[in-house]
Amino acid sequence: MMYSRKYRNLSGMTGMLLMLLLAAGCIFDDLSGCFRGLDLRVALHGSVPGGEESVRDVRLYIFDDKDLLLDIVPVSISQTVRLDYRGVPRLRCVAWCNTGDGGIRVSPLTVGDAFSRGTVSLEPLVATRSDGTTYVSPPDLFYGELEIENTTASGSSAEHKITVSRMVASMNITVRGLELLAGTSAGVFSLNVQGTPDRIDFGGIYGGESASYAPAGAFDAKRDYVVPEFRLFPASEGKGLTIGIFHDGELLRSVTAGSDGLPIAPVAGKTLHVLINLESGVDVEMVVTGWGENHIWKEYN
Q1: Which of 41, 169, 205, 298 could form a disulfide with 234 if both were Cys (CB 3.0 to 4.6 A apart)?
Q2: Given CA atoms 142, 143, 144, 150 in this order, what sign does their dihedral have?
Q3: Residue 52: is its pLDDT beyond 90?
């Protein structure tokens, strides 16, 4: 009869569906073989003025086992996200975030782009000096990387954590006896700090071209010329920076090392304090402290 034929056809279709579900290993309450995704959160190493709420532009870049981009996921610090990329044996996760009060450029990546194309670079301010482009001071910038075996199934609920660390250094400069060197208190005084890399790749490696900074300064009540703390990329390994001292655009003096012979080398996550004393020759003192810590120079050295 027609009804029995329809019944047999429905029975056959039902059987096929059941076989497919069995093959997938995910039937009703038996989920032991099912891929459930990975839980991941971004954790901040160290403290930030203003707390974690001041950290913005948190981005997770997810690459596959061939180092090709799968996804870009916007998150918040300490927020747990589920990564569900089935069939990919290993994930390479890169996190970037910053405080938004500076200039950086992130390479515009799209799905399928290679890991090697990812860079974060300084934002140019002007390009008039022959010794390199002048850049905007970067924001407080953080980076982290984590590789994960993408095999989590039901019963394995461990949360993965990618810790982001500070990638910039900070620096302040005091110049003593600047008016004595210039022979006048009139005109425009300025400093130029030159010699850091201008970019960081997604592996956390600094490189690119030589970058210059033009931090603003002013004379204090004691007529010391003071450049307050500003951020910059750290010096390349084994190299130091050059501080140029200018009056009305003319170079008066360049300083490349301390009086102890050590290079002027800011370190990521630390603050470098520099005193250049021009009252009798050139004497350069340097002190490295924790991030944002103050150091008071003696009035007379």
Answers
A1: 169
A2: positive
A3: no
Q: How far apart are CA 273 and CA 286, in angstroms?
A: 6
What distance in Å separates the CA atoms of residue 64 and residue 91, rounded to the nearest whole number?
5
Domains of the chain by residue range: 38-101+139-166, 169-290
> 38-101+139-166 and 169-290 share one CATH topology?
yes
Does CATH place domain 169-290 in 2.60.40.1220? no
pLDDT averaged over every residue in the chain: 86
pTM of the full predicted structure? 0.84
> Which whole number is the average pLDDT over 290-298?
91
Q: Which long-range contacts (CB under 8 A, 24 or more apart) does 159-162 make?
A: 159/39, 159/40, 159/41, 159/80, 160/38, 160/39, 160/40, 160/41, 161/40, 161/41, 161/42, 161/43, 162/40, 162/41, 162/42, 162/43, 162/60, 162/93, 162/95
Identify the residue with better confidence: 301 or 243: 243
Instruction: Write down the pLDDT at residue 26.
Output: 53
What pLDDT is attached to residue 237?
87
Q: How far apart are CA 296 and CA 259, in angstroms?
A: 18
Beta strands across the sheet bearing 206-207: 104-106, 119-122, 199-201, 206-207
pLDDT for the residue numbered 5: 45
The pLDDT assigned to 101 comes to 82
Helix (H, G, I), strand (E, B) or coil at 173: strand
Least Cα distance to 77 among 107, 50, 104, 38 occurs for: 50
Architecture of domain 38-101+139-166: Sandwich (2.60)
* Measured distance CA(64)–CA(113) in Å, rounded: 11
- C-alpha to C-alpha distance for 208 and 121, rounded to whole angstroms: 9
Euclidean distance between CA atoms 167 and 122, whole angstroms: 12
